[in-house]
Amino acid sequence: MIGNHWEASTVGSQWTRIQTSKLIGFKQKVKQLTKRNGGINLVEVIKRLNPVERGFVNYFSNANCKREIKALAGWIRRRLRAIQLRLWKKPIRLHRRLKQLEYKPLFKFIKMNSWRSSNSLLSSFSMPNQWFEDIGLYSIEHVNTGWLALSAFKK
User: What are the tens digits of pLDDT across the range 130-140?
Assistant: First the structure.
């Protein structure tokens, strides 16, 4: 109320962003849960990771942070690809997976324990984004954030 008149107000602002300290804390938590040398099955890692992702996205659902969330989702999938490559141990298993998906061989041999290899085309083709959703990864990039998230509650 301004003076004697009611005026509509906006919730949030276009400058609402994720705080850097919260982002760093989230990344540290994800790093703890997605260690490449843990030797844990990927499905078990995803079960442990999903509540952390849900909590983070719900906490920042009113922020205008779609771009940051999309970048985080890609980074998380890359960490999960690195875990799976490490579990496969040998490039032969990666190549077998690519053949199952009907890609034609001659494939490059890549280091299975390298962070760089988790960003290669071979690992992306063998483990596409939809594959992670199929095995149970909570997809944070499909969550509405910012004004869209708040307008969903008004309906």
Answer: 999 999 999 99
Q: Which helix (H) or strand (E) holds 148?
A: helix 147-154
| DSSP category for residue 15 | T
Q: Which residues contact 65 (CB under 8 A, 6 or more apart)?
A: 16, 17, 18, 145, 146
Q: Which of 142, 118, 107 is nearest to 42 (CA)?
A: 118
* pTM, entire model: 0.83
Closest C-alpha among 118, 18, 149, 150 to residue 72: 18
Name the percent of the chain in helix, strand, coil, to the closest 5.
60, 0, 40
Q: Which residues contact 19 (CB under 8 A, 6 or more apart)?
A: none
Q: Determine the Cα–Cα distance for residues 78 and 14; give it in Å rounded to an integer.
A: 30
